[in-house]
Amino acid sequence: MSTISGFHSNSPTTDKDARTPPAGKPGPYLLVTLGCFRNEADSDAIRSELGDMGLEETDSVESAGIIVVNTCGFIADACAEGIDTILELDRIISDLSPRPPILLVGCMGQRYGAALLEQLPEVSGVLGVDWSGSLEKVVTALVGGRRLSAVRGPGMASLTRTVDSRGGATMLVRVADGCDRGCRFCAIPSIKGGLVSRPPEDICREIERLSGGREREVLLLAQDLTSYGTDLPGDTDLTSLVRSVSELEWVRWLRLLYLEPEGVTEELIREMTGNPTVCDYFDIPFQHASSVILKGMGRPGNASRYRELVSSIRRRSPRASIRSTVMVGYPGETEEDFRQLVRFVEDVRFDWLGAFLFSPEEGTPAAELPGAVGRDVAVSRYNTVLSIQDSIEESGSERNVGRELEVVVESPDELESYDFIGRSYREAPVVDGVIHLRRSGSDSGKAQAGDFLVAKIMGREGLDLVGEI
User: What is the CATH architecture of 2-149?
Assistant: First the structure.
């Protein structure tokens, strides 16, 4: 069996009957999702529309009548992953007859459009980020043997979801798309366009529709979540949306991803730290601490303002979990700029931190800036930041030993010493640590994925916590 990115090849033989649809109707579809949480939510919207067409989903390449690849494309590495995935798919299906067409959808399609058909003969069709209204027509055309691109201008696709494929307790909900900020290193505005917010009543209906009559952790997603509602009439904003969603019957936890620092107002902090449904979890991408580098990035703010923002959060909630991301190697970054970033990371002591190397993305202003930082220097700085953060996270984990935390059970643990993987309010899915859970109480044998339980934190497993339920 060959396995890649959530799909699999069952055998070297072809189950042709499984792929042969009735006349005029495509066969089962295989959907491969690359990239971030937002793409997972978009893929469920694609599933919903394909389901409305009467198509069934398969996870087997051999059974697929059409293959849809929902791509990421805002950095070169993401595009490379998309190309590698398509080439691997093509290798698997090359001997199938008929060969299922590959439809590339999403950010990579939006960024490069019809040129992908010229550069990737393996691809039969291309759609961008606003695929709604075109998906059925394009799928039908590809199954009929055509090759075409139907990429429109940037915009938000319909997110009328009837499918929540993630399972467990966590529900991903996109509340807005696009971004009006002018960060000079970022290709997202050129791919996604300007901010488009969904009406709050539409968001609440989706959560109620997909809850399935059980308690859920709801993640609100957007490229620029703190700007939510600024394009809508009236007084709609993120704080009012948080209040509305937190009052829904099946929302046990509400988590916000991601919060631009300028949009984290005192009103929002009060709501997040005072509302018992909202996780005390702040994911704020500061990017840097040097005023010179931040200005070069096209971002307002400075280390002093950022320190005060973190202090304001911790004054209201000393237990708050704060995550950030920083970038090293930005053009013009001097040793002094980097020292300022290191001091900032050491002083603030984030609970979680992601670090990235600057990537000169085609079409962005930063790609043309002078003062490139050498690769070796940038990698050394990246490793320094991660080493510092590992020490911070290790001491932070120790401080949690002895606490009782509510956790959501996610899945069985692959480590033999433990029963389940779980998370508390401190950890977002995928990007942060986890809690390894052991059964101990008389009722713990009934625990299963999706349950919310109380765990006593007993120790650490590396940088992760260990708890008993």
Answer: 3-Layer(aba) Sandwich (3.40)
